[in-house]
Amino acid sequence: MYENGWFSIRSSVKTLYLQQQKRRENLINRQFSTSRLNEVWVSDVTYFHFHNKTYYICAVLDLYSRKAIAYRISLKNSTQLTKGTFKFAYQAEKPQRGLIFHSDNGSNYISKNFTAYLRQYGSVQSYSKKKTPYDNSVCESFFGSMKQEELYRSNYRSEKEMYLSVAKYIAR
Residue 122: CB partners within 8 Å, gap ≥ 6? Predict the structure, then answer.
């Protein structure tokens, strides 16, 4: 650090930044049709307030079937939530290597921990552009419908009832 409080920044910082930005490519480019199951999965996290708590719901949808193949509910929006949901989907579906996993740029999806986890399973990550929900409209639409058709229409008496309602909605 210099006397006036200024300090030197490595010249390679910009290069590292640009490399990281390049890695966040949108591989599906709003092409939401696929030719087979387990070719492209999309994922997102939404939240729901109930009894003075915020619940985070993460879902993974298969683009071919348009069905949720996995979901998890947590009181924390974390990398563990997204990893757990992906793991559950992977174990249930057993996709081939090269699966495209598309999400937004949320911190839980861009974390080194999560990206390394996907690579471990041979999955390729695809990202929506920042502040562009249309790039992940299948998942956005799924959560919008779930909230309008189920969550906002029900007066749950307990946390268990809310969990069961989400499970029933996703299973249909």
Answer: 96, 97, 98, 99
